[in-house]
Amino acid sequence: MSLKRYLIIMTFLSLILWLAFSFIAVVIEPDTVNWIGMLFFYSSLFLALSGTFTLLGFFIRYSILKKGLSLHISKKSFRQSFLLSSLIVSVLFMLSQSLFSWLNVIIIILILSFLEYIFMSEK
To answer: For residue 33, what pLDDT is reported?
Structure first.
């Protein structure tokens, strides 16, 4: 797959995911919904954020930094967008369940940083 085709498909899918998240956010009533509705809410948010952060990370690395091949840049962007989206969604989930504390956020950041270190050192 060419780079142009990859970026077009990724942009199109990200827009669809943001539309899906917007629809779910409008339809779902947080007070009366069961766990399946909340699963749809958080998973659609996670996927929309992952797609958006992947595109942003790729464009920043490709246009500004200009380091590496586009395949390596896209892999790194996707991996880091997955981790960043995990952080954001987990913080929002903790806020919704009244479990938020800075200690929890620091622990999640340390775990995600350790995972990133493992992926970076695996060469």
So the answer is: 85
pTM attached to this predicted model: 0.88
Separation of alpha carbons 60 and 30, rounded Å: 36
pLDDT digits (tens, 9 = 90+) for 19-67: 999 999 999 887 788 888 899 999 999 999 999 999 999 999 888 877 7
What is the rounded distance in angstroms from the CA atom of residue 6 to the CA atom of residue 72? Answer: 13
What would the two tokens of residue 89 be?
Answer: 């969604």
Contacts of 73 (CB under 8 A, 6+ apart): 58, 61, 62, 67
Q: Looking at this protein, which amino acid is placed at residue 74?
A: S
For the chain, what is the domain count? 1
Residue numbers of the domain that contains 82: 3-121
Residue 80 CA, chain-centre distance (Å), reads 8
Per-residue b or e along 58-77, where b marks 16 or more CB atoms closer than 10 Å to that residue's CB = beebbeeeeeeeeeebbebb
**Contacts by 65-70 with C-beta closer than 8 Å and gap 24+?**
70/3
